[in-house]
Write a structure and sequence with these properties.
single chain; 12 helices; disordered C terminus; disordered N terminus; 291 residues; mainly alpha; MetI-like fold
């Protein structure tokens, strides 16, 4: 009986401990909930009343939103609702892939450049040269060298985002390199890579989590831009950028073709940015003390 009572008290304490976290970090919780909803909608798209996003119905072209077409139909009679749900899946895949790849590659380069002085000047001059080109233009230039595909879009945007991560990690490493605990580890004979992995790498986690969310949001926008101008995903793959590009010439006649996909893209970017802002506030020790 005592063990049952103790477990009940523990469950209640965990339940009540959740409320202060939600109250203190409303922005992160709101962004995470909105993002989770969109991820579920993208994953469950085949079971959410959608049809084949490429199915043509010329006799039902340019229909306004109705019970048959929740978001209306486009110039070829395709269901905009189905195309938008499958399109947000592409946006989320590209955003998450670019975020993870750029964080991983930028972390490795930034750690080595920030800790090994010989590499610092060489690596950072290359990064400075890449950052002199806006990410969108760099991604467009890279896509012109390859054929349109989701994989190539991810690679092009990742290359454009890596310098931002490298500079962030390098700045963190430069501040940590002179800290007493790192100097003590070096003085005690700790090897180069062990010092980086054990003493420096864990201290970059908070900054990278926040930066990763911003790259996630930026990658979704860049992917939409690339697809909008015809340099991103191929036309046979429904993406939000392709849908917006196809509906721009019919905006005055059937504005619903770009309205709902645009709202979905805006909601996804807003969710990721809210999550990033909330994580920044939660992981900043100065803000945590004020709360």
């Amino acid at each position: 009986m005592a063990s049952i009572a103790t477990s009940g008290v523990g469950a209640r304490s965990r339940k009540f401990a959740l409320f202060p976290f939600v109250r203190r970090h409303r922005v992160a919780v709101l962004g995470g909930a909105l993002l989770a909803t969109m991820v579920l909608a993208a994953l469950l798209a085949p079971w959410l009343g959608t049809v084949d996003p490429q199915a043509l119905a010329p006799t039902r072209r340019l229909r306004p939103p109705s019970q048959a077409f929740w978001f209306g139909s486009d110039m070829l009679g395709r269901d905009v609702y189905s195309r938008a749900l499958y399109g947000i899946r592409i946006s989320l895949i590209v955003g998450a892939s670019v975020g993870l790849l750029s964080i991983f590659i930028g972390l490795v380069i930034g750690l080595l450049a920030g800790y090994i002085r010989v590499l610092d000047a060489i690596v950072m001059r290359v990064m400075d040269g890449m950052m002199a080109i806006p990410p969108v233009l760099l991604a467009i230039a890279l896509m012109t060298l390859t054929r349109p595909s989701v994989t190539n879009v991810v690679i092009a945007i990742t290359v454009a985002e890596i310098p931002r991560v490298v500079r962030l990690v390098r700045s963190v490493v430069l501040s940590l390199r002179e800290q007493p605990f790192v100097e003590a580890a070096v003085a005690s004979g700790t090897g180069l890579f062990r010092t980086i992995i054990v003493h420096i790498l864990p201290n970059t986690r908070a900054a990278l989590m926040v930066q990763g969310t911003y790259i996630f949001a930026s990658a979704m926008i860049v992917e939409a831009i690339l697809s909008f101008i015809g340099a991103g995903t191929p036309p046979n793959i429904p993406s939000l950028g392709n849908i917006l590009a196809e509906g721009r010439s019919l905006f005055q006649v059937a504005f619903h073709i770009i309205l709902f996909p645009g709202l979905l893209l805006s909601a996804a970017v807003l969710a990721v940015n809210l999550l990033g802002d909330g994580l920044r506030d939660a992981l900043d020790p100065r803000l945590a003390r004020q709360m």
